[in-house]
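Hi P.,

Sorry for the delay on this. The queue was packed all week, but I finally got your sequence through. Input first:
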Amino acid sequence: MNTTPMDAESLLPDGLFAGLAEPAPGTLERLHARLAAAAADRQLIDVSYRTVDSPLGTLLLAATERGLVRVAFAVEGHDAVLQALADKLGPRILQAPVRLDRTARELEEYFAGTRRSFDVPLDFALSRGFRLSVLEHLPHIAYGSTESYADVAKAAGSPKAVRAVGSACATNPLPVVVPCHRVVRSDGSFGGYLGGPEAKRALLALEAA
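Then the structure:
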């Protein structure tokens, strides 16, 4: 099912401002905020989202009532990510920056080098089974450190599942916050990364500084 993310203007009757002066600056933004708050209060939102600028480019942040559910790089195609969230979690998707202010602030602190771990609640609804076990282990890899795919497989309870660890990292729905960038090959080379090799290199360099 195709789903277009809701915004304030889409919720207004057609022609509402026809024949009227242009709304004062900030009017639609304030209306949007009120609509988002009302929708949240009535539990009418399946997924809230916003974007933030970062040294890795524009990141899409998405959250359910349970917590942060998705962090997406621009190379993934944000519209495609939102459509996938609608298909998997529910079609009621609203741009609601306030719900994600805390995540945005923690990311800003992380990229500034003043934060080493994230405290925002997480929703792992997009991961199951062994992949979930891998993701739950990743935050235990210390800031500035790395582990091999084999190390992570062992820690996740399946020492022989090295390829599966690679798959779990490649499909991590919460990159940066859940630090799959700290997983490298046994020879020390980077391996793949959802945001691209330069993004992984930048994150490891940030943490090594």
